[in-house]
Amino acid sequence: MAALRLLLLCLAGLAFAAEAGPAGTGESKCPLMVKVLDAVRGSPAVNVAVKVFKRTADGAWEPFAEGKTSDFGELHGLTTAEKFVEGVYRVELDTKAYWKELGITPFHEYAEPLPAALDPVLSPQVVFTANDSGPRRYTIAALLSPYSYSTTALVGAP
């Protein structure tokens, strides 16, 4: 139980640190930012592929943005405030490729929070509604290990 509390505290700290602005860049007003930490090595997770999808009116997922985390484990500039309109978004992290690159075989072949018949996914994902009560800034933070992952979100004023 104490380990779980420590893990959650670390993840919350990661998200709040991201609120101050990204390390090493001048981009502090991104409407959507992703931050990934490697819990095994205690360092930023570098080069994690991130894909963002937006749900369409018919319920399908349409590609919205993509990129890779920086040397700071952060991904900025995914979108602009004008393009990041109200809607349901899905963020996927390619954690399997990240661990394989480090020579580690992860436990998860894939994580599938939704039934395969509805939404087949090959990596951890976060699905959320954005900007339903006006424009906001979103930081999606993830803490990774080969055997588990945890995510949290920090939502703030634009």
UniProtKB/TrEMBL annotation:
Record-listed 4-carboxyglutamate modification sites: E62
Family affiliation: Belongs to the transthyretin family.
Domain of life: Eukaryota
One GO cellular component, as annotated: extracellular space
Keyword match Transport: yes
Function of the molecule: Thyroid hormone-binding protein. Probably transports thyroxine from the bloodstream to the brain.
Molecular function in Gene Ontology: hormone activity; thyroid hormone binding
One Pfam family recorded for the sequence: Transthyretin
Keyword annotations: Gamma-carboxyglutamic acid, Hormone, Secreted, Signal, Sulfation, Thyroid hormone, Transport
Localization of this protein: Secreted
An individual GO BP term: purine nucleobase metabolic process
Assembly and interaction partners: Homotetramer. Dimer of dimers. In the homotetramer, subunits assemble around a central channel that can accommodate two ligand molecules. Interacts with RBP4.
Signal peptide: 1-17
InterPro entries linked: Thyroxine_BS (IPR023418), Transthyretin/HIU_hydrolase (IPR000895), Transthyretin/HIU_hydrolase_d (IPR023416), Transthyretin/HIU_hydrolase_sf (IPR036817), Transthyretin_CS (IPR023419)
Domain called Transthyretin/hydroxyisourate hydrolase: residue spans: 27-158
Keyword set includes Secreted: yes
The name this protein goes by in its record: Transthyretin
